[in-house]
């Protein structure tokens, strides 16, 4: 048996649950890397301000 599993078995059930949550969190981040196409789509969807929009700040 791997030493990490031996250490896991020494934890109480609440601590084991915390370790499981930690692992699930990291696994969920691993699967959520956007593709290049998705990234480009998100960047293109960022709003831009026109010169007229910015005039409000110049009169302050």
Blueprint of the fold:
Blueprint: H1 3-10, H2 13-30, H3 36-44, H4 51-58
Task: Note the main sheet.
Answer: none
| Number of separate helices | 4
Strand content: under 5%
What would you call the shape? Answer: elongated
Mean pLDDT: 86
Order of helices and strands: HHHH
Number of strands: 0
Q: Please bin the fraction of helical residues.
A: over 70%
Structural class: mainly alpha
End-to-end separation in angstroms reads 69 Å
Task: Describe it.
- The chain is elongated and about 65 Å long.
- With 60 residues, the protein is mainly α.
- The longest helix is centred in the middle third of the chain and has 18 residues.
- The mean pLDDT is 86.
Structure characteristics:
60 residues, elongated
What can be said about this structure in brief?
With 60 residues, the chain is mostly helical. It is built from four helices and no strands.
């Amino acid at each position: 048996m791997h030493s990490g599993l031996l250490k896991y078995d020494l934890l109480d059930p609440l601590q084991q649950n915390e370790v499981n949550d930690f692992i699930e969190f990291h696994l969920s981040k691993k699967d959520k890397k956007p593709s290049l196409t998705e990234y480009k789509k998100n960047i293109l969807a960022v709003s831009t301000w026109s010169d007229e929009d910015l005039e409000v700040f110049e009169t302050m």
